[in-house]
Amino acid sequence: MSRPLWALSAAALCGACSGSEGPAARPPSSAWFEEQAESRGLRYEHRAFEVQRFDFPEIMGGGVALLDGDGDGDLDVLFPGGGDPRALPGARSAPRYFQNDGRGTFQDLTAVSGFTPGAYSMGAACGDHDQDGDVDVFLTGVGDTRLFLNEGGRFRDVTDAAGARAEGWTTSAGFLDFDADGRLDLFAARYVDWAPERELDCRAGDDVRDYCAPTRYARPSTALLLWNAGAGRFEDASARLGLAAESAHGLGVASLQREEGAALLVANDLLPNQAWIGADGGLVNRAMDWGLAVNSAGFAASGMGIHCADFDDDGDLDVFVAHLRRQGHSLFVQTPKGTFRDEAARCGLLRPTLPFTGFGAGFADFDNDGDLDLFVANGRVAREHPLPDPTNPYAEENQLFEQREEGRFSEVLPRGGLTPPCIASSRGAAFGDLDNDGGVDVVVVDWNGRARLLHNRAHTAGGWLGLWVRETHGGDAIGARVELVVDGRSRFRGVNPVYSYLASNDPRVHFGLGPRGVAQRLRVRWADGSVEEFPVPAAGAYHELRRVRSR
Amino acid sequence: MRAAAGATWFAACLRAAGGFSAPRSRWRSPLVSRSLLLAGPAALAAWTGACGSGATPAPPVRPADLGSPEIQAVVERAFQRAERQPEASLAWAELGLAFEANGRFVEAVVPYERAHALDPEEPLWPLHAALCETEAGLLDQARARLEASYRVHDRFAPLVHRLALARWESGDFAGARQAYERLSNLPGGGPAGLTGLAEVELASGRPEQALSLSRRALAAQPDGEPQDELRLARFLGATALRELGLLAEARAEFAAAGEPRRHLVGDSWSARTQEFAVTFEARFAAATGLLDGGRIAEARGILEQLALERPREVRALGNLAMARAAGGELAGALEVCDRALTLEPDAGALHVARARILLGLGRAVDASTAVRRATDLEPHVATHFLLLSHALEASGDPEGARAALLEARRLAPAQPAERPLDQPRGER
What we know:
The complex is a heterodimer of chains A (551) and B (428). Chain A has six helices and 40 strands. A five-stranded mixed beta sheet of chain A has the order 5-4-3-2-36. Chain A is 6% helix and 37% strand. Chain B is an all-alpha fold and 428 residues long. The radius of gyration of chain B is 23 Å and the shape is flat. Classes of the chains: A mainly beta (551), B mainly alpha (428).
């Protein structure tokens, strides 16, 4: 990444006087994002509770999904829920659905969307499970799950008919084709086995009532896999495939494409992460063998948001996992042998993240300079001094990291890419280009706060190319990998809406090209391993790539 | 039950609630003062220049409201003592500790700075100022202070260890290597220094060197307790084996490592925390630190009091049970453990504690019943099955013992965890 000379000088000067590393020196006027939720009509406020009882689900926040619900080529926004963990189903809050007018301005269409009140919903997954060319929605939460079928841009609850109801406290989820049969299955993390009558009285350091840690609750949980049996039906295959054999405190899910197939990752809170892959007719957890289970010091940290992406453009996927304050995040870099090494320290992501608790997280080339940057939505889960905001003991600032010299990140100032900085307790964060201007925007859901739309102002530093990669039936080709050769060098991006925390993200593939980058070659490796080459379309726009050769 | 076994369990189960690391040793370098004198005026100038103006900092200002009457009172008493002896570095340091022990890390820095200005030869004060800055998230300031202090106090192992870690966290592997090499040559720093060097080599992509260093660290204390630093060394060795493609050997080493914890070389000042901790959580953390350091009687004294104050606080009861057991009072331990279980009957760690106590009482059959309850509740924890194996062996069921052992081995490669009653590392 090239930088103005003055910025380099300022950074060097800072380092000289402090004797330590500081965030990247960018003047406040060059904030990468501008908060525009209100002006763009995205008016949503997350409610964690009606009465604060310190029920555990209250503090875990709400999610957000970016999906083209009406099939008009732009991203609509869905906020799954919140409300009151103890409320009866009929009294619970409904998801909120906002339709995009194509220019990144939104209209609240909840009333006619078909989304109905249900469980204490938290996360969402989006995918075309019935292969009819539109995107369906799966909601997670406390108590049960729900599946909504897309019928021409309106949604209908088909949970029971589809066999998609699952018990427990589900958090992040995704539509993924784990067995490469061409149909999208549903994978969801489950957190702890919680019920109001099992809530505990936990205290902060100064004896004030506070939320408990997951390990205080006796029973952990297990991950959920709803296998797509075809004809719009799912079957809970968790036990049959072996997922139910290992305990989890799952908060984040992701898919890791490997030569031997798609692995399903679970970011666990104070239990080792899991990496499930097919073997002997079932699934086995290979996280420890691959080096993904624990951090570089062997500690099963508090995994929350997770993202698999090829941040170093070496052709394989790496894994970022956000953690709690004082733990530092992990960046598991894949080695040529297919194992991983937590290189957060080497990559500049350990020390700057130690003071923060990260939830929603994602890589994207926010400044279109050709390499991936990283945004992390932060917010504490426990009350501790010093309190950045006296009115909200769980508030922190978000963080934005720019990839500078290859593979090394520096924090961007102003912190979180915003002026003034937003101090909140952030949870879900979804990434996508809401106004189709080539800049990846971020929607952040703050605990008990208004949703924020961080509109990207940094994307004009380089050219870009957007691709809507679809299967023959018209659904997003989830699991496909796109290789774009720019100036003789390959860059790899996945068709992957499943990352971050409680989120579903822009399914389109976005490439930053840099100020003078010229794309020379375009290939798609589909989820089943077959490869097709396409002509390189014009930069500066989104294009559809539809699979020509069927499976 | 042997006290040592209990203490080992404490180390795994009873984690200090945030704050600085629990005292491991009463480390105090005898060469600290001499090193400063030998370093001469240039080093002193470098030190004072790096850490501020060099003049005595202004006295701390009384915080108007610390949010807790108990903390306010202990701080006020420390304030008054310091004001009566304004030239006494110890009095200001005690004020710092009054803040630090109760989680008010930002407020602790200035008193420590004042103590340091009055007694620049004492490395504890800048160390604790840096620890507090670290806890408060002021990492750049903490590292700058550690770097400056290291120029003067490079034989003070707790400070060298903290600096090495700060450098490592920053990705400054060359700097971390230099500090860990220094630490490995200091009295008391051997295993920690070698372990740190192994971590640096691993992060630098040199698994062969990491493996060699981890084995040297393990060999440095062949007969010692399986302390956390050695668990970390073993984990790093296992990681190196995996990177070398030796997966079977790696799996065995991961299983042996259990769940490691980074343990920093302790210092004598941290050991005084319990004198100043006033809130329940702060005292609980202090007691946990004492247990972790093997100071059973002192820990038990605090925990007995905490259990009286909060008879429904399961963590205090559970830790008290283990403190009593480690002190040899097994019947009393069982009584308090049962009391805790009536409050949280599904707490796996309590059933494990109960099983250990019952084993100590020679009631192996009852112990196996107790630990089976833990394996039912937490079937993912390998060490529960290990304990079950011991209990079944002792109760005359070798086949059952073998099955439990196999289950422990099956779980261990994927699950290196012995869950604590509470898991306060990180923000929690």
